[in-house]
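Subject: Sanity check before I submit

Could someone independently write out the structure tokens for this chain? I want to compare against mine line by line before I put it in a report. The sequence has 214 residues.
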Amino acid sequence: MDPVPWLDRLAHDLRGPLTPLQTAVYLLRSGQVTPERQQELFILIERQTRQLVAMIDELGDWARVTQHRLVGPSEPCDLALLLDYARANSGPVGASAVLEQHADGVMVPGDPVRLTQLLRILLEYMGTLSQAPVTVWMRADDENFQIGMHGDATADPEQVPVLFEQPESDPFDHGLGLRLLVAKAIAEAHNGTLVANAEDGRLVFRCELPLHAG
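---
Independent answer below. Compare away.
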């Protein structure tokens, strides 16, 4: 990633939530808004603050990626259980996701918080693009655990190869466009892989992680 244009864009994106926050504070201080309008402004302040916090958290994650300190201590993790946690925190996308193939009780070594974050990022990205529920499958062989997901989102063959290589120009979550890069970094920090493919014209994510040797 070229740091100069990225820093320009970062300044622009972080300024986005600040403008409505400044306007809301100015209007509230004026003392000339109705109680109903005050409540609307409070809701706006809460929403924009949440967005700004999410952007700062995203930037903090990327800083940890560049410093090679993204993941915490490793422990045996049940990916099926972590997928349940990710679905529970992904709103309607997670609630409607369809589990096509299970691999319950299969353990991988890793940081459970970061692995849950990885699954949540993939679910939310796929769910944002797809009109149909996201389909998830899991399976394990002698050495690796594999998890994949797809919806009905069409895949641009030119864009798919760079999804995990550069920040999104139009972030799916109105953030900084770094979350897919963070997801890939989480997989690689666990000695795994994360790829996007165009299969039968649709976007498919595939993540592979080594099994727990124990």
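---
OP: Matches mine. For the report I'm noting this point. The two ends are 38 Å apart (CA to CA).
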